[in-house]
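A quick aside before the break. I want you to see a complete sequence-to-structure record at least once, exactly as it would be stored in a machine-readable document. Don't worry about memorizing anything.
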Amino acid sequence: MALRSAFESSDTTTERECAPMSANARPAPHRVLVFGASGHVGAFAADAIAGSNRNVALRVATSSVDKAGELKARYPSAEIVQADYMDLQSLVAAFDGVDAAFLITPDFRIDEQRAMINVCAAAHAAGTQPHLVKLTGVTIGINNANELRPSLREYPGPALQYQQARAVLNASGLPVSFLNSFAYFMDDLLTVWLLPLLNRRVLSAPFDRSTTFVDTRDLGEAAARLLLEPHDREHDGYMHHVTGTERIRFSEVATMLTEVLGVEITYEDDPQAFKDDVEEVVNMHFGPGATDYFVEFCLNEQKEEPLFIVTDVLQHLLGREPRTLRDWIEEHKSAFFPESTALPS
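That is the input. The structure line, written in tokens, reads:
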């Protein structure tokens, strides 16, 4: 499928390419706050900020006291603070003196509306009008919760959570940008889909729909670029729709895994088999009902398959070509079949 620019999207809140900065432009930040730096997107955002040549102070927030030492070791020049989305006072302290902040929230395990209400209250209290960059995963063309299919609107999963966050942030009066990952993370292959791959050499993914995959390192770097650059208030609320480099079906991913790993991987389109494989792990990680929701989410993706496009926004944000899925699999070969557990071909 041809690469499509998000600037051509029908979503009126999409980024405008090379638009001149207005009189409402905010300067580059002096202090940036990053949430989720222990995770696989926030960590790479913090890495990119810490490794930049900008004169900017990095503040890293964690809700876990136990992770503070690990974060300090990774970011020795950063300020480490304890903050919880559900604890307003901790957020007020975290946002003090901050000019920009990266927001990422855990799927399923949080009241997204309350979290973003608290974030906005803390950001206003800071008095600096910080530029908030929120990672989301909404379908392009679905602009509010009322446009979701009933099965996704009625369950407190990511599809609903992201729309709730978007509504609160857009109504806040704060400088806001959305980094919208309209794609699966490449490292989902080593989490959600790993057990069937290891145990049965099967890529079990209900409904053979087409999608795209992005590397979380690229997402983190893109977030850092948005945070470190001046922000034009005329662009508040814009959705930076990022995707992978190609539109690909899960059956084609299985073929790619076979070619790169040298192990025959079969594609399996069986919702019940998928649930049997991953239900215990997924529900334990995300909560009861998460596996059923995920199957329904996959069915919804199949129904909305025409909305799955490939954009060049990530390339523009990075200033280079994003990593491809094939290259990522090649790089992570040993994680799929470590020598000690590899199955004979």
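Two observations worth writing down. The radius of gyration is 20 Å. The first strand starts at residue 25 and ends at 26. We'll return to this after the break.
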